[in-house]
Amino acid sequence: MSEVLDLSAEARERAGKGASRAMRREGRVPAVIYGNKQEPVSVHVEEKVLMKLLHTGHFFNSVVMLDVAGKKIRTLPKDVQFHPVTDRPLHADFLRIGEHTKVTVDVPVHFKDEELSPGIKKGGVLNIVVHDLGLTVDAAEIPEEIVVSLKGLNVGDSIHLSQIKLPKGATAADTDDVTIATIVAPSALKAEEAEAAEAAEAEAPAEDEAAEGEAPAAEGEEGAEG
Known about the structure:
This protein has 226 residues and is of the alpha+beta class. It has helices at 17-25, 47-54, 118-121, 187-225, and strands at 5-11, 28-35, 38-46, 64-68, 71-82, 89-96, 102-112, 125-128, 132-138, 146-149, 158-160, 171-172, 179-184.
């Protein structure tokens, strides 16, 4: 299951752009906690700690326990806004949830058994279409990743959503049977096939011209015999 992350927060007494800018100068990031039929709470968190959690790679599909003045609040990160130039976090949104609330999260898809794929052994390339799979799942059972086996797959084969075994109690947020990945021919092989096709097309007009050139000669021969 995905790791539960801890993050300390302090209540914001002042709101507005001026107050937010002052917080950022002090290395703090304004944030809001909302949802679960309760009033929103304005807080701020330490920028360095928030960045460290973001770099875990699974921040947005993890439960974050916010400690506000000693009170633990179970949340799910929903959004972090970044400065367009510096990439520093400007604001964060946290959705307040219950221990077993059904939540929708994007879970990373990882692939294994490449050595057992005949297509990849032949030089085929894994083309990943869906990197993160949307799942609706119990907040206490959020998977860290979805692992998909490539065993037995050949060039031209595809993996669809319906072929993936989801964790118990989880359902896909997408109702369509989307393509998750395909095994495609290597670019070099594609180039050879394209060159062969072009050569075949070039030969076809030449053969037609030769056939057309032979027809008058045949007629001339018939006239001589007559």
